[in-house]
Design a protein that fits this description.
Helix content: under 10%
Structural class: mainly beta
Largest sheet: 6 strands, antiparallel
Order of helices and strands: EEEEEEEEEEE
Number of helices: 0
């Protein structure tokens, strides 16, 4: 059996570690939630991943901590100004929670996915895109 850590990096349908991004702007990798996490230093910060969506995603789960209430985590395609296909609403209070939401519209084909937030200081450990 192949080592699951060597799976196709363009396959989005797995648990994705936030710090394994392809590109980033305005973020810092810090320790948190038992390992490395990405902290968004401003509301214009982002991380991006290159994926091949063989089928459109149905839902996304994220593991995050937000110091403030009212945080949103946006999944966008093609650019940091691109179309949002999922918005997830993490719990506040600085504790780690897993939250999820559905995807619409559902991207297909090869896409660059950008992850952003409206709250500086939000930390993201991992996310899982599900079919």
């Amino acid at each position: 059996d192949p080592d699951p850590d060597l799976s196709d990096p363009m396959d989005p349908f797995k648990v994705n570690q936030a710090e394994d991004f392809t590109d980033s702007n305005g973020v810092t990798i810090v320790n948190g939630d038992g390992g490395s996490v990405v902290r968004f230093d401003s509301t214009s910060g982002w991380i991006s991943f290159e994926y091949d969506f063989s089928s459109g995603p149905q839902t996304i789960d994220i593991r995050s901590a937000s110091a403030g209430w009212g945080a949103n985590v946006y999944f966008k395609v093609d650019s940091s100004d691109g179309q949002t296909f999922s918005t997830i609403y993490p719990n506040g209070g600085g504790l780690w929670y897993t939250n999820s939401n559905s995807c619409w519209p559902r991207p297909t084909g090869v896409k660059t996915v950008y992850i952003m937030t409206n709250k500086a200081g939000l930390e993201l450990n991992w996310f899982e895109i599900k079919k």
